[in-house]
Amino acid sequence: MRAIYPGSFDPVTNGHIDIIKRASMLSDELYVAVLTNSDKSQTFSVEERLRFLESVTNEFPNVKIVFFDGLLIDYAKKINADVIIRGLRAVSDYEYELQMAIANKKLCQEIETLFMVSDSKWSFLSSSLVKEIAMFGGDLHGMLPDFIINEVEAKVRRR
Ligand code: COA
Asked: Contact at 8 Å (CB) between 104 and 73?
């Protein structure tokens, strides 16, 4: 099975890494795709987000990190993906996820969306939350890999 796990990953957190790890065990090939969410402005460049993802996934041989500037479903079709993986952290994620899954299904009948329940350890976590904690000097240990913490703190301080 070829799977794609999309997100803006701005930046990748331990919650994403947990989903990547578990999804990579379920699939033959897992494409982790950095895509653009047009509702959000990005803190990290595409190159930085790709570099973070490459570093945290180099121990998983079947994981490939990619960027696509367009519709998720177009990229999923291009690589012949069987499924789109999405993580659900809480009930509040469900409505948005359902809408995306139905829209993607309408655009391509053959590709299914599979939801994975986030580990409860990470259900509070989001990329914006870590940036906000960094902005006010809070401790990010345990939320992100250490080398990303340094980069998030440096970036947020510069802004
Ligand atoms: N652990 C920790 N945090 C998580 C998480 C997990 N398991 N899963 C999601 N999150 C966080 C993300 O970091 C993100 O945080 P933020 O809002 O603070 O940035 C938030 O939860 C929402 O994540 P997600 O729902 O994955 O949104 P996203 O912005 O990362 O990704 C895209 C959305 C990019 C996949 C979507 O916009 C897309 O497909 N874009 C391409 C264009 C397209 O096809 N649009 C039409 C879709 S039908």
From this structure: yes
pLDDT digits (tens, 9 = 90+) for 43-77: 999 999 999 999 999 999 999 999 999 999 999 99
Separation between Cα atoms, residue 140 and residue 38, nearest integer Å: 27
Q: Is the CB of 123 under 6 A from ligand 1?
A: no
Residue 158 a catalytic site member: no
Residue nearest to atom 2 of ligand 1 (CA): 15
- To the query of whether residue 89 is one of the catalytic residues in this protein, the response is yes
Cα–Cα distance between 22 and 57 in angstroms, integer?
12
Helix (H, G, I), strand (E, B) or coil at 113: strand
CA of 157 to the centre of ligand 1 (A): 24
Whether the pTM exceeds 0.90: the reply is yes
Give residue 113's identity as a one-letter amino acid code: T
Tokens encoding 69: 């500037």
Q: Is 8 a catalytic residue?
A: no
Which entry of 24, 27, 127, 131 is annotated as an active-site residue? 127
Residue 34 one-letter amino acid = V
Task: Give the model confidence (pLDDT) of 100-155 as tens digits.
Answer: 999 999 999 999 999 999 999 999 999 999 999 999 999 999 999 999 999 999 99
Q: Is the CB of 11 under 6 A from ligand 1?
A: no
What span, in angstroms and rounded, lies between the C-alpha atoms of 151 and 154? 5
